[in-house]
Automatic annotation (TrEMBL):
Protein's name in the database: Fe2OG dioxygenase domain-containing protein
Gene3D superfamilies, sorted: q2cbj1_9rhob like domain
Family: Belongs to the iron/ascorbate-dependent oxidoreductase family.
One Pfam family cited in the UniProt record for this chain: HalD
Domain of life of the native organism: Bacteria
Length: 286
């Protein structure tokens, strides 16, 4: 019989280096001090990076799980604009925001990751979700309810990269399970848009190849990175060397039970998800 998510949540804390990152108690003592440090860094820089977030043996287990699952994943050729949607026909033909970017990734969607896996244990941790909520200063925060987007594992093989994009939700967390030998740097334009608008000048500069205002930092395996992916244009530079870069992507949302539009999921996940959704729609109208 499958284990419940409550059981999985309890076990998730065994994976985290709680001595270094005391997220189990954020109300007092070391946990409260640590939370304030994370919040301040997020406010000042638009990101918060926690090196060696997992215990050494836990990182080995999660990376092992990912490497065992990835051979079952599809190699996706993802073509999209930075907003992950259709091109705005009102923009001039030479507007950089009309440009579509392509990247190639081996990717597991949430429905391909077993609920008993330690990756799911970590993502379904109530305490971890609460930590992310507090760092992001949200009144409410929920794990994404979308059956494909909630938790993903992405492998970028040598000569691959992750194209510029905004996430479909604001609060995204990445856990680097296996670093590239060189390259594969997470690069982003902090707070390049808000609910009121977008810094088109900064975005246009970046899309034209000007990286002078972008931020990038090196991360080792086990790094847990919080950032505002829905508001910060971001991507991953080209992976070099012989080893793929493998990351887990955890998606959170202020809205409960939110799912992503079918066209966006098909754009990201390709034929497999298109077939699932088409079969479901056919059954619903039969």
């Amino acid at each position: 019989m499958p284990e419940s998510h409550q059981t999985l949540r309890d076990r998730a804390l065994d994976l985290i280096d709680l001595d270094r990152y005391p997220i189990a108690d954020l109300e007092s003592g070391a946990g409260a001090v640590f939370l304030e440090q994370c919040q301040r860094h997020m406010d000042e820089h638009g990101w918060c990076n926690l090196a060696d977030f997992l215990r050494t043996e836990a990182l080995e287990q999660l990376n092992g799980e990912a490497n065992e699952l990835l051979p079952t994943a599809e190699t996706l050729h993802v073509k999209r604009n930075i907003y992950q949607g259709a091109i705005d026909p009102s923009l001039p033909d030479d507007d950089p925001r009309r440009k579509e970017f392509v990247h190639i990734a081996v990717q597991l969607a949430d429905d391909q990751i077993p609920v008993q896996s330690k990756l799911k244990q970590l993502y379904h941790s109530k305490i971890l979700t609460e930590f992310v909520r507090r760092v992001q200063r949200k009144d409410h925060l929920y794990r994404c309810a979308d059956e494909f987007q909630a938790l993903n594992v992405v492998a970028l093989h040598p000569e691959s990269w992750h194209a510029w994009h905004y996430d479909t939700t604001e609060c995204t967390v990445t856990l680097l399970l296996q670093a590239a030998e060189t390259g594969g740097e997470f690069t982003f334009l902090p707070n390049s848009r808000t609910d009121e608008g977008e810094d088109h000048e900064a975005v246009d500069r970046l899309l034209a190849g000007d990286m002078s205002h972008a931020q990038s930092f090196s991360r080792g395996a086990g790094a847990f990175t919080l950032f505002r992916g829905g508001y910060s244009l971001h991507g991953v530079t080209k992976v070099q060397g012989a080893q793929p870069r493998i990351s887990a992507i955890m998606t959170y949302d202020e809205q409960p039970n939110r799912v992503i539009e079918d066209d966006i999921n098909i754009r990201i996940y390709g034929k497999r998800v298109e077939t699932i959704l088409a079969s479901r729609n056919t059954a619903a109208t039969a």
